[in-house]
Amino acid sequence: MERIERHACFGGWQDVYRHESKVLGCDMTVGVYFPPQAEEGPCPVLYWLSGLTCNEQNFITKAGAQRYAAEHGLILVAPDTSPRGDDVADDEAYDLGKGAGFYVNATREPWSRHYRMYDYIVEELPEWVESDPAASDRRSISGHSMGGHGALAIALKNPGRYRSVSAFSPIVAPTQVPWGEKAFSAYLGDDREAWKQYDTVELVKNAREKLPLLIDQGEDDNFLAEQLRPELLREACDAAKHPIELRMRPGYDHSYYFIASFIGEHIAHHARALKG
Ligand SMILES: N[C@@H](CCC(=O)N[C@@H](CSC=O)C(=O)NCC(=O)O)C(=O)O
């Protein structure tokens, strides 16, 4: 493990680390924000999953989350979105391969060798983070777009593991929209039944734990009608009596300007769950 960046930030530290991932078979970069409270004892952790084309830098440089993490005493962990390296399979398109891991365990060649982002996020990354005495094992998870899909699906698939979950502009039904259909065909093959294990709308139907879903969605988001389709999740939650707060935000698009506008509310939501 190597620290490759350190910046003083709101009384704490914004670091970037490179660590070896055995699950992914490559080195991974991860942004970790330590609030000032981490000097005094273990702090709870909010995991952030970014979207297509992102690495660990997008969230730490654009969301402005550190101010709120410092206020509430939360560690923020923002990993890269896919395995990386010269021997890692890729595609020319922005929505497949590097930068587009979709938080699943791929089962098809050439992807299955490295693309195991589900296991990395659920198991290996927290194990690595929690080996630091500054971090406690109280966890929450959030994300944006592809990362919003990852956060919601991972929380629903792992009852008891996360104290809270939220998302910005998530892909709620990857089995029904072009981004998800393309990625899941490549990573998981043609059996659509196998795709459902990673689809939030499907998972909510039989969720054992009714962890409330907090979602913000911009109404002027170019991807809203074709790729995101939050109405499908609202309908599924209503049918399953699963608690959801879906806040449609007039005028906001898909960008980090939107995330920066409401990240403080999400961090306050997670802080309540993590400290309660
Ligand atoms: N065609 C676009 C798509 C890339 C894009 O909008 N990426 C979003 C996430 S989309 C869903 O996962 C993003 O977060 N981009 C990074 C950023 O810093 O804004 C393109 O290639 O530009």
TrEMBL record:
Active-site residues (renumbered): S145, D221, H254
One GO location term (cellular component): cytosol
Keyword vocabulary terms for this entry: Hydrolase, Serine esterase
Pfam family, one: Esterase
Role played: Serine hydrolase involved in the detoxification of formaldehyde.
Catalytic activity: S-formylglutathione + H2O = formate + glutathione + H(+)
Protein name, UniProt field: S-formylglutathione hydrolase
Gene Ontology terms for molecular function: carboxylic ester hydrolase activity; S-formylglutathione hydrolase activity
Domain of life: Bacteria
Keyword Hydrolase listed: yes
Transmembrane segments: none
Family in the record: Belongs to the esterase D family.
BP term (GO), one: formaldehyde catabolic process
Keyword match Hydrolase: yes
Stored SUPFAM superfamilies: alpha/beta-Hydrolases
